[in-house]
Amino acid sequence: MTAKSKRDQIEAMLVDEPNDPELRYMLAMDHVSAGDDAGAVHCFEQLIQVAPNYPPGYHMAGRALQRLNRISEARALLERGIPIAQKTGDHHAAGEMTELLQTME
């Protein structure tokens, strides 16, 4: 019997916990690690839908969109994510998103 891949394991856990932001983030980052930025963006979009106050989702989605050369979408997402990070007290994420946004100007 073949061992389940990391992605398969995360997807199985999401069946039981579909609104778990950390599981959704891990799934998106697994796509990033595999070089699948389009798949990652899809996962980040799902993450933001279920956990709109999860700043890392905005930050990493912005990076994936940038790599896909979808700059206007990346900028819009970062502009949404920065105030959320500030509001939730995640100043590190807010700073990283601000720096990323500035590189797109």
In short:
The chain is mostly helical and 105 residues long. The protein contains six helices and no strands.
Low-pLDDT stretches are: none
State the major sheet.
none
Listing every helix as H and every strand as E from the N terminus to the C terminus, the arrangement reads: HHHHHH
What is the helical fraction, as a range of percent?
over 70%
The CATH superfamily name is Tetratricopeptide repeat domain
Radius of gyration: 14 Å
Global mean pLDDT: 95
Total number of β-strand segments?
0
Which structural class do you get from the secondary structure elements? mainly alpha
CATH class: Mainly Alpha
Number of helices: 6
Instruction: Give the total of domains.
Output: 1
Report the portion of residues in β strands: under 5%
Named CATH topology: Serine Threonine Protein Phosphatase 5, Tetratricopeptide repeat
Known CATH architecture: Alpha Horseshoe
Using the alpha-carbon principal axes, give the shape.
Answer: globular
Distance between the termini: 51 Å
Break the fold down into its secondary structure elements and pairings:
Layout: H1 6-16, H2 21-33, H3 37-50, H4 55-67, H5 71-87, H6 91-103
Helix pairs in contact: 1-2, 2-3, 3-4, 4-5, 4-6, 5-6
Description:
The termini are far apart. The protein has helices at 6-16, 21-33, 37-50, 55-67, 71-87, 91-103. It has one domain: Alpha Horseshoe (Serine Threonine Protein Phosphatase 5, Tetratricopeptide repeat), CATH 1.25.40. The chain is built from 6 helices and no strands. The relative contact order is 0.12. The protein has 105 residues and is mainly alpha-helical. The model has no long low-confidence stretch (mean pLDDT 95). Helix 1 runs antiparallel to helix 2 and helix 3 runs antiparallel to helix 4 (55-67).
